[in-house]
Design brief:
This protein is an alpha/beta fold. It contains 19 helices and 9 strands. Helix 1 packs across helix 6 and helix 3 packs across helix 4.
Length: about 450
């Protein structure tokens, strides 16, 4: 095995030399791309740290100012002294060629990170206390992080971010806002002005039997069948077959009771056949493995997204997931925090909206009235991590009377980029489908 360190000394020297010849504005731009770990040699790291300090004071970093700064910090000799600094200053005659040398620095940095990861993998592989699933989840997550180490200058550049932000603002001003994924539930979409955008964690919470799974499947149906997009569903409670059976019936608007009684008409048969064909030919993926961890969810989603980009991920539901770390085993609050943070990380990393279902605690039933964000079961981290929180609340009179068409309020309790409010809808229990309610006014 070759034990030589991975670095390119000439490229490191060239980039540092180009920096010394650049003007202050250009130096600031270079610092938005360069990082300390692009440099492997210790003396080069010290010189780069000096660049950060000097430019941070709005002082032009040249031979004199850098030498003075290193001397003041007591690191001039460690950085190679006058001789090394003079050699670096003379290495290039201008700043223009730094981008020609930068790819070599980036490649060396990435290779060093992989070398460190490989060492960690050997250590993990020899740890007999780690279960196979934990090891697989760790390796998947670690490789995913390594993927994002290479050339993240575009992500870090404020210039690129501001340009994208301005483009979004101008598009909205032209009446062409950049909309994410729509739910297909019209009153709800009216409140979620920009839809479910890539990177968003959207929580759909309710007490049992209010209709959160039905709502999620209706959203999945709209996104996959009407919008022709790719949807990945993690069902930790129901089987994939049960979910798809429900989706077909709901799409066809045929009651389960009619099928069971074998009393369906030809029109209903045709509707079922049509719905079946639509679901069969859709881009819905479904994983119904029970008792899995957040690491498993992230690994499966990443593989599916690499094969073909996903447009929406649905998780049913958060409290059935497990954490991966030893800390999460200490108590349930820590575990829920890890799961919630992992879901948000997944959304941001893949830049895909993640709709996660969650349970509410019993407090709303005890006190009466509408539930609130504080009623999310398990941890305050769910409320903190989420970009949007929708809470389903069944009309109390309808709940008492067990009506087949209860009014269910979609309470948008948190919305980072838009208004909060209430969107009432009628829940047709017979076909597990939400429909526009006659009481469709919104409250803010």
């Amino acid at each position: 095995m070759n034990n030589e360190s991975i670095f390119d000394q000439s490229s490191e020297s060239a980039v540092l030399s180009c920096f010394l010849h650049a003007q202050l504005d250009e130096q600031r731009e270079m610092l938005s791309t360069l990082r300390e770990d692009h440099f492997h040699l210790y003396e080069h790291k010290l010189i780069f740290q000096s660049f950060l300090r000097v430019v941070g004071k709005s002082i032009h970093a040249d031979y004199i100012s850098i030498k003075s700064d290193l001397d003041a910090n007591g690191t001039l000799e460690d950085a190679g002294g006058d001789k090394t600094l003079a050699e670096i200053a003379a290495y290039c005659q201008s700043s223009h060629s730094w981008r020609r040398y930068f790819p070599q620095l980036e490649e060396a940095r990435y290779r060093r990170s992989l070398e460190m990861l490989a060492g960690d993998m050997v250590h993990k592989a020899r740890d007999r206390e780690l279960k196979l699933e934990e090891l697989k989840n760790w390796s998947e997550t670690s490789v995913m992080r390594a993927d994002y180490l290479i050339d993240d200058s575009e992500k870090l550049s404020i210039k690129t971010v501001v340009e994208r932000a301005l483009d979004n603002i101008e598009s909205t001003m032209r009446g062409e806002p950049k909309i994410g994924v729509r739910t297909g539930l019209v009153p709800v979409d009216d409140l979620l002005m920009f839809g479910m955008r890539g990177g968003d964690m959207i929580v759909l919470a309710a007490r049992p039997a209010v209709g959160k799974t039905s709502a999620a499947m209706q959203i999945a149906e709209h996104v996959a069948l009407d919008a022709q997009k790719r949807v990945l569903i993690f069902s930790l409670e129901m089987t994939s077959v049960s979910l798809m059976e429900r989706m077909i019936r709901s799409r066809a608007k045929v009651r389960a009771a009619d099928i069971l009684a074998q009393s369906i008409s030809k029109y209903q048969r045709d509707s079922l056949a049509s719905a079946y064909a639509e679901v069969r030919d859709s881009q819905i993926l479904c994983d119904d493995t029970s008792g899995k961890s957040i690491g498993y969810i992230k690994a499966v989603a990443r593989r599916a997204h690499q094969k073909e980009p996903l447009d929406l991920i649905i998780i049913d539901y958060l409290q059935l997931l497990r954490g991966d770390s030893k800390r999460s085993k200490d108590n349930r609050v820590n575990e829920v925090e890890e799961i919630s943070g992992g879901i948000k990380e997944l959304a941001k990393t893949l830049r895909v909206p993640v709709l996660v279902l969650a349970q509410l605690n019993r407090d709303p039933e005890k006190r009466g009235g509408r539930p609130s964000l504080s009623d999310l079961k398990g941890s305050g981290a769910i409320e903190q991590d989420a970009d949007m929180v929708m809470i389903l609340h069944c009309d109390e009179e309808d709940a008492k009377n067990h009506t087949q068409h209860p009014t269910v309020e979609f309470i948008v309790a948190k919305h980072r980029e838009g208004p909060t409010g209430v969107a009432p809808m009628s829940f047709n229990k017979a076909i597990t489908r939400f429909e526009i309610s006659s009481n469709n006014g919104r409250e803010s």
